[in-house]
Amino acid sequence: MNEIRATRQTSGLTQIWGVPEGYDAFLLARRLSEHDGPLLHVARDDAEMARIGEQLAFIAPQAEILRFPAWDCLPYDRVSPNPAIVAERVATLTCLLEKPKRPRIVLTTVNGLIQRVAPRRAFEGQSLNIATGEALDQEFLIELLVANGYNRTDTVMEPGEFATRGGIFDIFPAGEAEPVRLDLFGDEVENIRGFDPATQRSTGRRDALVMRPVADFSLDADSISRFRTGWRDLFGQAAAEDPMYQHVSAGRRHAGMEHWLPLFHEHMETLIDYLPGVSISLAQQAEEAFTARLEMIADHFEARRQPTREGEVPYRALPSHLMYLDRKGWEAMLAGHPAVVFMPFAQPDGASGIDAGGRPGQMFARTATDGMRENVFPMLAARMNEWAQTGRRTYVTAWSRGSAERLGVLLREYHLPVQSYTTWHEAARMKAGTIGLLTLGLERGFVADDMAFVSEQDLLGERISRPPRRRKKADQFIAEASEIAEGDLVVHQDYGIGRYDGLETIGVGSAPHDCLRLIYDGNEKLFLPVENIELLSRFGSEQTGVALDKLGGVSWQSRKAKMKQRIRDMAGELIRTAAARALREAPALTPAEGLWDEFCARFPFVETEDQSRAIADVLDDMASGRPMDRLVCGDVGFGKTEVALRAAFVAAMSGGQVAVVVPTTLLARQHYRTFAARFSDLPIKVAQLSRMVTGKEATAVRKGLADGTVNIVIGTHALLAKTVKFADLGLLIVDEEQHFGVAHKEKLKALREDVHVLTLSATPLPRTLQLALTGVREMSLIATPPTDRLAVRTFIMPFDSVVIREAIQRERFRGGQVFCVVPRIEDLDRMAARLHEIVPDARMVQAHGRLSPTELERVMTEFSDGKYDILLSTNIVESGLDMPAVNTLIIHRADMFGLGQLYQLRGRVGRGKQRGYAYLTWPQTHVLSAAAQKRLEVMQTLDTLGAGFTLASHDLDLRGAGNLLGDEQSGHIREVGIELYQQMLEDAVADLRHEKGRRKAEDRDWTPNIILGLPVLIPDTYVPDLPVRLGLYRRISALANDAEIEAMQAELIDRFGTLPDEVRNLLDVVALKRMCRTAGVERLEAGPKGMVIQFRNNSFVNPAGLVTWIAQQKDGKVRLRPDHKLAIIREMTNAQRITQARKVLGALNTLAEAVPA
Questions:
Q1: DSSP secondary structure code for residue 1074 in this structure
Q2: pLDDT tens-digit series, residues 201-231
Q3: Counting beta carbons within 10 angstroms of the beta carbon of residue 314, is it exposed (0 to 12), middle (13 to 18) or buried (19 or more)?
Q4: When you count CB atoms within 10 A of the terminal residue's CB, does the N or C end of the chain come out lower?
């Protein structure tokens, strides 16, 4: 170790041998504790940088670990790097200008290191310390934020954004885990609070905050002047016509402008310039990665110099030495500082350098005899004893807490001494002879010094898990994008389908009132008060060819009445089926002890919460003694197959047979491979029956099913043939049932009489629809993706030949394939010609809806087998298919797709170990509409995964619910819109089941009308952004009780400041509406001289009680008029109108509730 310590005093590159993966983090932690200055570690790529960062945080929690990631776009790209990445880079650079308070290490990659950065003086004095009680000029703060690259928005959700509302500033600073809310009183900071970007609610108070820049440059007058001069010097006066030049000249940001960063500064520096006295370490393949990067930069520079097609804006590329280190600069950097390169192998004889003594660990799973899992743990016990005799401590690492618990169970089953540790400080003091169980992301084990590490993979075989990341909730982003926009079709419960035409303030009872303006047939207008917005529902994403209803016409009411009856009939059928099933019996099946944990442990992912719940639901159903009939919904790759595998294990190990029925031979083959691999170590025979198998094999499979020697069979509708007989069918698994024809569905019904049935579906199912069917159809929803799936990097850009060529070539070079999707069949040939021009040697095949099922399946099978590089298709890329080789998606005319379609398409890529890339493009000459721009921006925001089912509930296309409930229902949905359909279905189910505490649908299908002569609205001075205001109106109208109203009031004050009277009135009206419903009051009108109450259908539920109550009002100013309206004569101020209304309605509520239900 003294030799390694000496490398920090001498400049130049030293090789340190014997540093296998995992041990590098321990060596870095040791170097940190022994070195006075900063360390810089250059990882091979982003994944390695993330791994070392996570391991260092566990091993050396006292260290300051700074990350400096590379941009996530290509050299000379037209798209900007991800703002969050830019913010993290700039936060690291500004941190490096401050004196360290603890040992400091910077982690970067080769790509991050060789890119030049803004000079130190650009960031000096740009950070701002803000503390409560201090003075802060609001105008100065806004100017500073804009100058430092912050983007002004209406709602802050991403790093680098800020919003201001009066004296409240919402800011998401660089380097912070969450945004902050500053509350200023005049120019004094009253308080600082963190807040959750998903809910916009405060999370806790803070005393101080450091505001760092989030951009590499500012658009101030000096920077713009430098840019203009540099641009003209490099590209000539004619280049002044370029949109980039014009945008920057006008002080506006432009997509991709960061690729001209050197023009904004007098000179550029490197990361090393920020690190005086640094000691450098490099991953083994850093040199090769540097060479490859230089070649890529040169290739892209040359590609950008090629003549552009007509209609494409020429790309004026900067000479590469201005933006990147060249080889001379790289070598000088390494020669000028102490530098080591970590080599994973033992030091060869005669090789220079130092041997750190680390060696790769043993892969027990691979060396277990006959592949039998039970040999692994005795082998571990024997090896641990050997290590203990030499004083070595044994540690077993797991990826997650859940995995660690499961491993602990397995180790104890084999009587191994196990102790769990949550910190390295405790674990490092453990005595030899015990196994220390740690939650630490380690791919492979190693042996070094006095420690031996064994990873989860070493014991259980290949896993591709990564530690769970903190996920952003998607609801807020999606809700904003799918809020009702002008021009959208909406459905009013009483008047039918209309078109939303904006928000308008009109006078109601001499006071201003916000109303939604709706247009109906014949251009007739209807004004809906905002507090009654719950009467509106979105029609759905498919709005073409839909006729508007006529105001006052009978068509809508008759259509709605017929629909109610049809939905009621369908709900009745569902309920009868569920009741009949509950009376039948089936064998109670439970997991086989011991083997179950090992079978589960071989799942190469960490189960998500949803997935664990689905598995528990299935196990409960199978053990209940009644036939299971459960539907598991979840997007492709979210782990439905694992639920099926566990159910199959329980059934097969209990002696029953399992049949897995799928709609296509391709899917059958996919499932067969998965099941065969997973059951390979068990005494279970898995077979396949489809067109893929020969006649001889099919005969053997049928015989095996009949005599019970085949335990699990996977097949297409061939399994439903009369010639197929089962010895003892215990579990039927149906995948993508909606793709089967009517005849096959009938055969499936016959098969499922007394066996357990598990149905899998990748159709997105909104939670509202799931709730509507609760208790009718047993359902489990898997809405979150596996924790290890890398987010798909999404690029939003005009179609650029160079970028698309690079995307396709990169995918091909790593052995992958590409999906290219266009909106219409007529676009296919045009796109094929374009792609052939860009990548003439790529093998391409087309698929679209006009191909016959057989032809389509042939195309998909050949593509899946790797015969083609690119599948060019319309939006029919089959939902159930899992193609892990496809990791790049190109969507042309992305503006023509709905949000749900875009999200589903993107879910088709990035399912394996490789990161997925999605390019959402449109023609360069095409100008996007505001709505399309918003949709695409949301797609970029949602690249953190897990948004699919939130999205489905907002943007469900008609096919989704139709698949679940039957084809006929799709037409029903089209008649009334998806949201109203869901509500009607929920009502029908609830009414038929006579649920207690629920009013009948007819009683709910109305809303009270309240006129107080008071202003009822959210002023635009309080909430300036219209979509946010509309969203608040929808949420406020749905508030169900006083607690929710108080919570909303607290949120509004938190987000926007003190409540104006108009907003208080709005919240009061919503509370009064609820009381009106309970009392059956259809209309309440109050003014300066009293109020008039009209009951629904001119009758009150407790007439005798009402008469008594009126008689008790001694002043004689309450009377029931001949027209059955209740009149209260009383002088009232504005404030008294609300308190009096509450008082009267409270009395009426008491009377109404006194009547037995």
A1: H
A2: 888 899 999 888 888 888 888 999 999 999 9
A3: middle
A4: C
Report the alpha-carbon distance of residue 591 to residue 595 in Å, rounded. 8
Write out the H or E segment, with its range, that includes residue 497: strand 496-508
Angle at 184 between CA 179 and CA 189, to 5 degrees: 85
Share of the chain above pLDDT 70, in %: 86
Average pLDDT over residues 983-997: 66
Maximum alpha-carbon separation in the chain: 112
Q: How confident is the model at residue 767 (pLDDT cuts 50, 70, 90)?
A: very low
Ramachandran angles phi, psi of 438, nearest 5°: -120, 145
Confidence of residue 788 (pLDDT cuts 50, 70, 90): low
CATH code for the domain in which residue 374 is found: 3.40.50.11140
Query: For all residues of the chain together, what is the average pLDDT?
Result: 83
Residue 1071 lies in a domain: no
> What pLDDT score was predicted for residue 650?
95
Q: Quick check: 266 pLDDT over 60?
A: yes
Q: Could you give the CA distance from residue 1133 to residue 1137 in angstroms, rounded to a whole number?
A: 6
Are 118 and 89 in contact by the 8 Å Cβ rule? The answer is no
**pTM for the whole thing?**
0.68
CATH of the domain at 671: 3.40.50.300
18 Rama sector, left if φ>0, alpha if ψ -120 to 50, beta otherwise: left
Backbone angles phi, psi at 882, to 5 degrees: -115, 110
In terms of Cβ atoms closer than 10 Å to its own Cβ (0-12, 13-18, 19+), residue 87 is: buried
AA letter at 1093: I
Helices and strands, number each (H, E), in the chain:
40, 44
Give every CB contact of residue 671 below 8 A, 6+ residues apart in sequence.
641, 660, 662, 714, 735
117 near 271, Cβ under 8 Å? yes
Q: How many domains does the chain have?
A: 5
689 located within any domain: yes
Determine contact, residues 40/9, Cβ cutoff 8 Å: no
Which pLDDT band, with edges at 50, 70 and 90, does 420 fall under? very high
User: What residues have CB less than 8 Å from 762, skipping those under 6 apart?
Assistant: 633, 634, 635, 636, 640, 736, 879, 880
Q: What is the DSSP string of 992-1059?
A: HTT-TT---HHHHS---EEE-SS-BS--TTTS--HHHHHHHHHHHHT--SHHHHHHHHHHHHHHH-SP
Q: Convert the pLDDT of each residue in 913-962 to its tens digit.
A: 677 889 999 988 888 877 777 778 777 766 544 444 444 444 443 333 44
Dist. CA 776–CA 770, nearest whole Å: 10
**DSSP 8-state secondary structure symbol assigned to residue 72:** S
pLDDT in tens, 1005-1021: 678 989 888 898 899 88
Question: Which of these three, 211, 242, 275, is where a domain ends?
Answer: 211
DSSP letter (8 states) at residue 362: -
Which residues lie below 8 Å from residue 1, measured CB to CB, with a gap of 6+?
Answer: 30
For residues 72 and 223, give the distance between their C-alpha atoms in angstroms, rounded to a whole number.
24
Terminal Cα-to-Cα distance of the chain (whole angstroms): 83
- Residue 433 backbone phi and psi in degrees, to 5: 100, -5
Angle at 627 (CA atoms; ends 624, 630), nearest 5 degrees = 95
Higher model confidence: residue 309 or residue 668? Answer: 668
Q: CB-side exposure of 431: number of CA atoms within 13 Å?
A: 2
| Of 944, 962, 987, the domain-final residue | 944
Q: Within 13 Å and on the Cβ side, how many CA atoms surround 512?
A: 11
Classify residue 244: in a domain, yes or no.
Answer: no
Q: What is the pLDDT of residue 374?
A: 56
List the one residue out of 106, 121, 113 whose CA is nearest residue 333: 113
Q: What is the mean pLDDT of residues 783-802?
A: 76
Given this model, what pLDDT does residue 477 score?
44
CB-based contacts of 148: which residues, under 8 Å, 6+ apart? 126, 211, 212, 213, 214, 215, 218
Structure tokens at 341: 């390169």
The answer to whether residues 856 and 900 belong to one domain is yes
